Amino acid sequence: MNQTIDISSKSVSHRWTQHDTHWALSLFGTAVGAGILFLPINLGMGGFWPLLIMAVLAFPMTFMAHRGLARFVLSSRHKDADFTDVVAEHFGSQAGRLISVLYFLSIFPILLIYGVGLTNTVDSFLVNQLGWASPNRVMLSGVLVAGMIAIMMGGERLMLRAFAAMVYPLVAILAFLSFYLIPSWQAPNLAMPAMGELGMNLWLAVPVVIFSFSHAAAISSFANIQRRHYGDDAQGKSEQILKRAGVMLVAFVLLFVFSCVLTLTPAQMAEAKAQNVSVLSYLANVTQNPFIGTLGPLVAFIAITSSFLGHFLGARESLNGLVTKHSTLTYKKADKLGVIVMFFAIWWCAVINPSILDMMGALSGPVIAMILFIMPTVAAYKVKALAQYRGKAGTYFIFVTGMLAISALLYNLIG
């Protein structure tokens, strides 16, 4: 009988379902935000060799880090524990409260940035591509933010369908643009830079790669749903989904990055950086190609919307956990209150269009790096359920990567 159970469990773990496909697409959509349009510029400025090295490291950094966070969430003794519950269980109530607050504050500014970015993208498209007069910003931002939140309020099935509807076109457009640029490719400069310069470029590129592929905001909800869906097989299925999402993410994004980098020179990348425009906007300007200029806003709209949904998932869950643990509100009342508060906060920011949002996003970076890389490593040596991962090469790799990311982010902030 035991052998039959083992075989059945193994078959469930390896059978790929539509549920798994939808979640792989959801994680992909959460990671691919508007930052993808600036990623070729940020990576390409350092030259070809740092880009090639970071391309090799992109998948292990992405997969191992998110796998570690999913394992951490699934390590709880309680079957319905979310991120805030697990942190309090393993690190105590006071430390758990602090980490949970920091986790929420690391995600929420990104939602504010996306609210502003989506409003600006749609407004620009209506004015520049369609020739309309600029619409009332209060009405436009309110409709856009309300529409995105309505998708999340429609439940898991509607959310997953929305992700699928957005991610397929996004993947198709990224692949098409990547191949479309091939005739414009130029031979890269293969001269090896000095070791000091190479090391500096690699060090500063670590956080760029991490946050361009990060879907940490959705991992807690993702892991919990897999536990409800697959029971004891949740960890195996979570890792399988994360692996496929990571492969798809790295493959399509790096294809786009390499295609853009081979089309533009490092000097042109630096010029695009100075102009603070996306790579598609810069390509449209230097090539006078209206086709690329038209696709740019479409890619930005789809990328921002899909990433907004994934980050809203994480912010909503963490805020609900904090409110229910430190008030007398029930989960349903806390959820309704949290959604209302976040809606008005995102709407307000989208209306006033503040420039401080870039600084808020930069400040959230170190916290995300600590939660995604450092905390699961520390938990491996503190939590009995994670003891099997102590001393593993992957555990050390993630810890070192996290420390490099945090130090590079602090260096950029101070510098």
From TrEMBL:
<dbReference type="GO" id="GO:0005886">
    <property type="term" value="C:plasma membrane"/>
</dbReference>
<feature type="transmembrane region" description="Helical">
    <location>
        <begin position="393"/>
        <end position="414"/>
    </location>
</feature>
<keyword id="KW-0997">Cell inner membrane</keyword>
<dbReference type="GO" id="GO:0003333">
    <property type="term" value="P:amino acid transmembrane transport"/>
</dbReference>
<feature type="transmembrane region" description="Helical">
    <location>
        <begin position="47"/>
        <end position="69"/>
    </location>
</feature>
<keyword id="KW-0472">Membrane</keyword>
<feature type="transmembrane region" description="Helical">
    <location>
        <begin position="21"/>
        <end position="41"/>
    </location>
</feature>
<feature type="transmembrane region" description="Helical">
    <location>
        <begin position="202"/>
        <end position="225"/>
    </location>
</feature>
<keyword id="KW-0813">Transport</keyword>
<feature type="transmembrane region" description="Helical">
    <location>
        <begin position="290"/>
        <end position="315"/>
    </location>
</feature>
<dbReference type="InterPro" id="IPR018227">
    <property type="entry name" value="Amino_acid_transport_2"/>
</dbReference>
<feature type="transmembrane region" description="Helical">
    <location>
        <begin position="138"/>
        <end position="155"/>
    </location>
</feature>
<keyword id="KW-1003">Cell membrane</keyword>
<protein>
    <submittedName>
        <fullName>HAAAP family serine/threonine permease</fullName>
    </submittedName>
</protein>
<feature type="transmembrane region" description="Helical">
    <location>
        <begin position="336"/>
        <end position="357"/>
    </location>
</feature>
<feature type="transmembrane region" description="Helical">
    <location>
        <begin position="162"/>
        <end position="182"/>
    </location>
</feature>
<keyword id="KW-0812">Transmembrane</keyword>
<dbReference type="Pfam" id="PF03222">
    <property type="entry name" value="Trp_Tyr_perm"/>
</dbReference>
<feature type="transmembrane region" description="Helical">
    <location>
        <begin position="246"/>
        <end position="270"/>
    </location>
</feature>
<feature type="transmembrane region" description="Helical">
    <location>
        <begin position="363"/>
        <end position="381"/>
    </location>
</feature>
<feature type="transmembrane region" description="Helical">
    <location>
        <begin position="98"/>
        <end position="118"/>
    </location>
</feature>
<keyword id="KW-1133">Transmembrane helix</keyword>
